[in-house]
């Protein structure tokens, strides 16, 4: 499991729009990675919209923001277009990045156990280390709290 102060696990993932994103190539800018369970579900939609609404403020702080889920790029693009999202969405289809960040976990819904993505956010500083972790995120006010943490770097 990843912890604050550790180097952030590096990765290269495909994103909506056809490009790829390599975490280490973004240094020395801070990076926000928010992991979410599934495109176009109520909580995930609210979270993506919240980050989109203040993305310009993250950008003015020099920070990059990315949403990460297992959904394929084509689904990300439909989700992005349907809700006018501007936050880039990364596809971790084989869940290697989710595993590396410790967000691929056993969940329990109505007594049924299954594996899924825990809603979590990681703030990575300009040196590539994990500066802050939010686990089991509650969406209201979360994007603003992450922005405050970016400003405090």
Automatic annotation (TrEMBL):
GO terms for cellular component: cytoplasm. It catalyses: a hydroperoxide + [thioredoxin]-dithiol = an alcohol + [thioredoxin]-disulfide + H2O. Belongs to the peroxiredoxin family. BCP/PrxQ subfamily. Keywords: Antioxidant, Disulfide bond, Oxidoreductase, Peroxidase, Redox-active center. CDD domains: PRX_BCP (cd03017). The keyword Zinc-finger does not apply. Thiol-specific peroxidase that catalyzes the reduction of hydrogen peroxide and organic hydroperoxides to water and alcohols, respectively. Plays a role in cell protection against oxidative stress by detoxifying peroxides and as sensor of hydrogen peroxide-mediated signaling events. GO terms for molecular function: thioredoxin peroxidase activity. InterPro entries: AhpC/TSA, Peroxiredoxin_AhpC-typ, Peroxiredoxin_BCP/PrxQ, Thioredoxin-like_sf, Thioredoxin_domain. Transmembrane segments: none annotated. Monomer. Its EC number is 1.11.1.24. This is thioredoxin-dependent peroxiredoxin. The lineage of its organism: Bacteria, Pseudomonadati, Pseudomonadota, Alphaproteobacteria, Rhodobacterales. The active site is at 44 (cysteine sulfenic acid (-soh) intermediate). Residues 2-153 form the Thioredoxin domain. GO terms for biological process: cell redox homeostasis; cellular response to oxidative stress. It comes from Actibacterium naphthalenivorans. The keyword Disulfide bond applies.
